[in-house]
From TrEMBL:
Oxidoreductase is among the record's keywords: yes
Ketoreductase domain span: 6-182
Domain of life the protein comes from: Bacteria
Family as reported in the entry's similarity comment: Belongs to the short-chain dehydrogenases/reductases (SDR) family.
The UniProt record lists the keyword Flavoprotein: no
Species this protein is from: Micromonospora avicenniae
Single Gene Ontology MF annotation: oxidoreductase activity
The name this protein goes by in its record: NADP-dependent 3-hydroxy acid dehydrogenase YdfG
Keywords: Oxidoreductase
Length: 263
């Protein structure tokens, strides 16, 4: 996808990867970037920093009616949506002790929000003859987020859903990309480190923490090539091969890392 003159929607746009995508899409010549986030004040600040092509909207992506309204309002305002970035996501920092409410919240933000946006945006994209979906699925969707069971399970589901969309709709003009970064210098990581979450400590120990702007660079390159799997950390591909070829050895290595970090 060439981003020049495109109409783009980004959820989870109040900071981190979402804000970086907005800045980069603007630099690439997008005609409009609609920034959606549950934090209305923060997303307005990002829109102000991006410039006049940015339009902030307060949206809770776990509410399907709000997601449908976001899509409908964007289509009325700009006539179409060329690229929808389902980027909102949350972590829990816990395992099986996370209560049902925590699991449900992770499921709704990390998975159902992607379902809601696809339901809402696909009819218009199909009618106009094409479009692109960019789903932020995390390297946790390809591998495992040590220390965070809900994040691991929901990001695996998010990647599976993105692949299903690609298989089902690509021949009808819809391109789907799954953005799967590993460690990114965002509040999600820094807050996790401050709270002592094991998963955040594992990511930090890897020594491969990228800035959100680097992730946005990778996203733009992947969109231009219409790749399904976009890996800002190329080493994730090698990890995935090792995991597939030797799952027992891969898990043994992760357990060794956890023992070292928790000693």
């Amino acid at each position: 996808m060439n981003l020049t003159d495109r109409i783009v929607v980004i959820t989870g746009a109040a900071g981190g990867i979402g804000a970086a995508l907005a800045r980069r899409f603007s630099a690439e010549g997008a005609a409009a970037v609609v920034l959606a986030d549950v934090n209305s004040e923060a997303v307005r600040a990002v829109a102000d920093s991006v410039g006049p092509i940015a339009h902030p909207v307060a949206v809770d992506v776990t509410d399907e009616e709000q997601v449908c309204a976001l899509v409908a309002d964007t289509e009325r305002r700009y006539g179409r949506i060329d690229l929808f970035c389902a980027n909102a996501g949350i972590t829990t920092g816990g395992g099986i002790e996370i209560d049902d409410a925590g699991w449900d919240r992770a499921w709704r933000v990390n998975v159902l929000a992607h379902v809601y946006s696809a339901r809402a945006v696909l009819p218009g994209m199909l009618a106009q003859g094409g479009g692109h979906l960019l789903h932020t699925c995390s390297a946790a969707g390809v591998l495992t987020a040590v220390g965070d069971a809900p994040y691991t399970a929901t990001k695996h589901a998010a990647l599976g859903f993105a692949e299903w969309l690609s298989v089902t709709y690509r021949d009808r003009g819809i391109r789907v990309s799954a953005l799967c970064p590993q460690g990114v210098d965002t509040p999600m990581l820094t807050d996790g480190l401050a709270a002592g979450h094991l998963g955040a400590r594992v990511v930090a120990a890897s020594g491969a923490v990228l800035t959100p702007d680097r992730v946005a660079d990778a996203a733009v390159a992947g969109l231009a090539e219409e790749r399904f799997l976009i890996l800002p950390h190329p080493e994730v591909a090698a990890y995935a091969r090792r995991r597939a070829e030797d799952p027992d050895g891969w898990q043994a290595g992760l357990r060794k890392l956890v023992r070292r970090l928790t000693a």
